[in-house]
Amino acid sequence: MKPYQYGLLFLAFLLLGYNSVYFEKLSDRQAGAEADFDYGAYADSLYYQGMLQEVAAVELATLLADIRNDADAAFKNYGNRLGIGNSAYFMVKGSGVITGITEDAIRLQAAGVGDVGINTRYIFGNALRDASGLVKLTDFKTNAEFNRVSEALNALVRTKVMPPLIDALETGDSIAVVGAVKLSKKALDDPALMITPAQIIPQ
Amino acid sequence: MINGLTVPVTFNILSNMKKSILYLIILLGLAACSSGGSGSEETKKVAVVISTLNNPWFVVLAESAAENARELGYEAKIFDSQNNPATESDNFENLIASGFDAILFNPTDADGSIVNIMKAKAAEVPVFCMDREVNADDAATSQILSDNYSGCVEIGIEFVKALDGRGKYVELLGLVGDNNTWARSGGFHSVVDEFPGLEMVAQQSADFDRNRAMEVMETILQAQPDIDAVFCGNDAMAMGAYQALQGAGKADAVKVFGFDGAADVIEKIGEGKIVATGMQYPKVMARTAAEYAHEYFNGRREFPQRVPVEVELVDAGNVDQYQE
């Protein structure tokens, strides 16, 4: 074999090798395997057709009074707990005056309740999905798929719905809020109320 | 004569009655023995098949499942799959051949374990998965699983707050074939990836193993000495990573986060050496799986396919509630 043939062979080997081996993050590879369903479109429909139109929220003051009266009954009537645990998610509504705005949250002096936080930075997890009660665990084949519904719903609320609403608010404004709150039966004496907002409506 | 006749007749009747009673007693005795024999044969046998007994967390899961099954009146035996799908497959074949009536199962692989469950299903042996999910919703009778995703979302939020949204970090993943690995990583990244000031400089599997995590962390620290935090997919790895950081003199500078709620990590959180973990409840999962098997034996056939069990965030603010 002539030297240039060795060279060609070496080049062909390099080309084949380059195209045969690639690197990607383990987490990206895992995510790629679940990428068929349009979670964005599903979340849009869940939010605009479901959450804003069909979901009945309980007045936060009513919920807290009912919990003081009979926590088990209040959790059963208003809460949604998937599986086994001490906590449940509730879709609540309330209104009041804004007492402060930080990077993380809006503080609200809510009528009949007192100080309540509205989470504006950490809109993550399953609070909105589960409080709405609109999606069943059995609607999706795996927990990973079920959780991607939350991610899409949170992304919609966090990046599209909330920013223009929050930007327009100032301390002293009156607002109404609808959103999810998580309460645990282990900490009902003086629960730190932090609402994950689905809607903020200037009054 | 009458009396003379009467006595033998009476005697004969009494004698026959005695014989009948004797036969009856013997028959009843035999029936009791027979019943006792078949009763012991009818004592249901529950197999507890665990991914590995080389991790204290899974030992608790296995022993709790077996103990609950025994308390419910069943024989129970623990099988160790040694994190090896082939061993798991052998375990399934053996226990099906040995006539076990139900399996409380902690799979080694989200995909690879499905075939084993299907073998049991074909043999009409119900399978109740504990802690680890398989990628099928028509194989196991029910799957009782930690809500890893939600737990790690909360850890992710804690992570962002602890680092004030800025810094370099490392992620130590568990077994790549286990759905829990990805549920935890997915929950964590669903939060952390939204903060561009946080840069993941290394992501590597340490197989949920403490020693392996220490080795992996030592290697990573050579290439990335200036990290601010480590997120570990379980507490065993968090302890391994912490050991490596201690060895490198960086334990005070690097924030460590785990997942499981293991006693040694809870202690470290109390001492301010580890930032947070997610408290899982293996005993709740084991008890639920054993009770489901019991209900199955009693005729129940409809079970929820997946039952998430809440994971609670443990940090410096509430660690006193979890310290024994």
In order across it, which strands form the biggest sheet of chain A? 3-4-5-7-6
Strand sequence of the main sheet of chain B, in spatial order? 2-1-3-4-5-11
Please name the fourth-level CATH homologous superfamily of chain A.
Answer: Envelope glycoprotein gp160, DUF2291, alpha/beta domain
Count of helix runs of chain A:
7
Shape of chain A: elongated
Distance between the termini of chain A: 86 Å
Q: How much is the average pLDDT of chain A?
A: 88
Protein name (chain A): DUF2291 domain-containing protein
InterPro entries (chain A): TM0957-like_sf (IPR036215), UCP033535_lipo (IPR014582)
If you had to describe this structure to a student in words, what would you say it looks like?
Chain A is built from seven helices and seven strands, in the order αααβααββββααββ. In chain A, β4 and β5 (114-119) form a beta hairpin. With 203 residues, chain A is an alpha+beta fold. In chain A, α3 crosses α7 (143-167) and α4 (60-69) runs antiparallel to α5. The mean pLDDT of chain A is 88. Chain A is 43% helix and 25% strand. Chain A has a single domain, classed as Beta Barrel (OB fold (Dihydrolipoamide Acetyltransferase, E2P)), CATH 2.40.50.420. By secondary structure, chain B is of the alpha/beta class. Chain B has a six-stranded parallel β-sheet, with helices on both faces. A four-stranded parallel β-sheet of chain B has the order 7-6-8-9, sandwiched between helices. In chain B, α8 (235-247) links the parallel β8 (229-232) and β9. In chain B, α2 packs parallel to α10 (282-297), α5 packs parallel to α6 (179-192) and α7 packs across α8. The longest helix of chain B has 41 residues, at 2-42. The model of chain B is unreliable at 1-11 and 27-40 (pLDDT under 50). Chain A binds chain B through residues 25-27, 30-31, 81-87, 122, 124-126, 137-138, 141-144, 147, 150-151, 154, 158, 186, and chain B through 133, 135-137, 144-145, 147-150, 153-154, 156-157, 160, 173, 176, 179, 182-183, 185-187, 189-191, 194, 203, 205, 284, 288, 304-310, 312, 321.
